[in-house]
Design a protein that fits this description.
- The protein is 20% helix and 28% strand.
- The chain contains three helices and 13 strands; from the N terminus they run E-H-E-H-E-E-H-E-E-E-E-E-E-E-E-E.
- Bound molecules: N-oxalylglycine and manganese (II) ion.
C-alpha cells in the first residue's frame, strides 16, 4: 500500500529560541521537505504549525469571518476568473490583506524561509509565497483540480495548513491527492529522516485509484488526509480535491511561485 512520507516538525526544534511558535529550524525543515518532494512529489508535515500558532490562526480566521472579510473564492485567473460554487465552496481572505492579524505575517514569514530552503535544494526558481485563509461551510468541497492554471505555470509547490481543532472521519472534508503510480519509493520511506509513515496516526490512508470516469486513473493512486494536525506540501501539478465536509472546515492554502513572463 502506498504511504505518504511524513515529517514530524518537532524534530526540527531549534533549542536556541524559546517561544513555541519560534522553535522550528525552517531551513532544516525546508530541506527535508525538499528531499521528499523530489522523491515522492508530496509530504505531510505533522505538528506544523504548532498548536499555539494553529489556535491563533484559527482565531484570526474566525474574526475575519465575523467581520465579513472573507470573499467568495474564484476559479481560474484573469479572463477565466469565475465564481463557481459548484466547483469550490470555500470563502477566502489573502494573508497579506491588511485586515489580517499579526499571526498571518508570522505564518508568511515562516513559509518564506521554508520556500527559500526548498529552492536552494531543488533550484525551482521559487521567488515568492502567497496564501489565503479558507473556510469551507458544511456541505461544500473543492472538485478535482490542479493548482497550476492552464495559462500560467507560476505555481510550483502547494502548501496547505489545517486549522481545525477537532475532526472525525465522519466529518468528511479529506484532502484527496492523486499520485502518479510507479515512483521509486515503492511505498516505503527509504530516506531515513522521516518519522516513517505511521499512516493512521497522521490521518493518512491510501487506496488504489479506479478508472471510474474514463480518464487514465489506473496510473494513479490516491491518498486521503483528514484536515487536522499539520500541513501538506505537494507539487502543484498534482491533481487533488477537497471531499465534501460535514462541518465547517478551516485551512490555509498557499503556493510557492516562480516568476514567469505572464505572471503579472
Ligand atoms: C486549494 C486546495 C486543499 C485543502 O485551495 O486549491 O486544493 O485541503 N485546498 O484545503
Ligand atoms: Mn488546490
Amino acid at each position: 500500500m502506498r504511504t505518504l512520507p511524513t515529517l514530524d516538525a518537532r524534530v526540527f526544534a531549534d533549542s536556541s529560541t524559546s517561544r513555541e511558535d519560534e522553535v522550528t529550524d525552517f531551513t532544516a525543515l525546508g530541506e527535508a521537505v525538499a528531499a521528499h518532494l523530489e522523491a515522492h512529489g508530496a509530504c505531510w508535515i505533522a505538528h506544523w504549525p504548532p498548536p499555539a500558532m494553529v489556535a491563533r490562526l484559527r482565531e484570526d480566521l474566525e474574526r475575519l469571518q465575523t467581520d465579513a472579510a472573507l470573499g467568495e473564492a474564484a476559479v481560474g485567473r484573469l479572463g477565466t476568473h469565475l465564481r463557481r460554487s459548484d466547483v469550490r465552496g470555500d470563502r477566502t481572505c489573502w494573508l497579506d490583506d491588511p485586515r489580517c492579524g499579526t499571526v498571518a505575517a508570522d505564518y508568511l514569514s515562516a513559509l518564506t524561509r521554508i520556500r527559500a530552503a526548498i529552492d536552494r535544494r531543488l533550484f525551482l526558481g521559487l521567488v515568492e509565497f502567497e496564501a489565503h485563509y479558507a473556510a469551507y461551510p458544511s456541505g461544500t468541497g473543492y472538485a478535482r483540480h490542479r493548482d497550476r492554471f492552464r495559462d500560467s505555470d507560476a505555481r510550483v509547490v502547494s502548501w496547505v495548513s489545517y486549522l481545525n481543532a477537532e475532526w472525525a472521519a465522519a466529518d468528511g472534508g479529506a484532502l484527496r491527492l492523486y499520485l502518479p503510480n510507479g515512483d521509486n519509493s515503492s511505498g516505503d520511506s527509504s530516506s531515513g529522516d522521516s518519522s516513517s509513515g505511521n499512516v493512521s496516526s497522521s490521518g493518512i490512508s491510501s487506496r488504489d485509484g479506479s478508472n471510474h470516469d474514463g480518464s487514465n486513473d489506473d496510473a494513479v493512486e490516491t491518498i486521503e488526509l483528514a484536515p487536522i494536525g499539520g500541513s501538506m506540501c505537494f507539487l502543484s501539478e498534482l491533481e487533488h480535491e477537497v471531499l465534501v465536509a460535514h462541518r465547517e472546515r478551516y485551512s490555509i492554502a498557499g503556493w510557492m511561485r516562480r516568476r514567469t513572463r505572464d505572471a503579472f
